[in-house]
Request: fold
Amino acid sequence: MKTLRNNNLSHFSGQSLVEVALFLPILVILIAGVIEASQLVITQNRISNAARIASRFAANGGEDDGMGVVAMNAVTQTLPLTEDLWDIWSIRATTNSTGDGFSAFNVSHIYGISNTTAFGGVDWAAVQQETLDDVRRDENGDLLPAEFTSNVQLVGTLILHDVESILGIESLPGMAGINTIQGLSMMRMVGLGAIEQTDGCSGFPIAVSSGTRSTTSTEYPPADTFDYPDNPPAYEDFPNNVPGVPMDQAEEGYLYLILNGFGDGNFGWLAWNDGINPSSVTLADSLSWPGNGTDYQDHGDGGQPASPDNWPWVVRGFVEAGDPSDISMHIGDWVAASTGSINSNGVRTQLEEHIDLSRDLRLIIWDEYDGTGGNGRYRISGFAIFRLIGYKLDQGQGSDSWILAEFVRWDTSCGQVVEAP
Reply:
């Protein structure tokens, strides 16, 4: 009987191993499929967002060259920027007098090397039809009267981006072809004149003084003074830091302890425009990834319209302090300061997320503070990429607050002023 029982157990064990061997490959494929589908959906959202940002830039007067860079800035740090993986077109069109066609539909290839899988298969007739359908119908899908759809000036962006597919997925919604994701955005011109011939920057609402110097071992904050992280790194963990170097000579790995003093400190918080009510809530919104410096939607925020000729509502995006016609952030522009309380759970949460994920953040370098005009303003002298290491926040705007940040590189990809020819 004992032998019979052992034989039966061996039989069942062997059967289980066979079942696992048969089912495991299917399970692995299912898991891989879920992961890949999720990644493709996330990438689709990023491409669509990049197309919208580039189109908004063009709708506000931006030129074709800037549109490509704006789109790339929107996906920096999230997608590879290799040119053979991208093809981007600008679209500039005008509807005809009856609103049922186009009197002009001009397309320019502005980025990439015509190497994406779906490059040769773009159906421009379908793009025109999709654009017309969007222009001619309201949010309920009803046709608009001809007077609202005739002679409308439109600008748009079409983006193709090749992605690697481990399972060879070809037909998810939004896919333009094998391994190619498409993003299309069309917008009406808002009536602004041409802006500077460089693309404007976006970033995060921390302005760092150009006079800041890299920290020394004696200036480095003791571990028990950090609000976050709980177990902060030591000064010795940054072997590439060279102490006492001015910001304009910063190199990768240099460490900067930037002190908050509101106007006279090494850094200040920003509000992007002087129309929105500065508070810990609006600051937390601007600190959240991927930033809202180009957000001009109506969120019902309190304050006054900063650019009433363009938007009759309060916007969260950048509008130059003192110049409501300028919504493209460049060197030499003035940015509104925020005087709202910084010691809030929302602000802390956003800072801690950036620290935990070791994100590269584009921050503004300022060289002059002007205390007039509402809450004050900082003048931009450049843009740089930093990685936040830790922080301490006190109540209000006191100088006991600081941010410890590691310099990554200067960023000259946007916001650079060029001389007119």
The mean pLDDT is 81. The helical segments are 2-59, 64-75, 124-136, 146-149, 280-287, 345-356. Residues 360 and 387 are 5 Å apart (CA to CA).
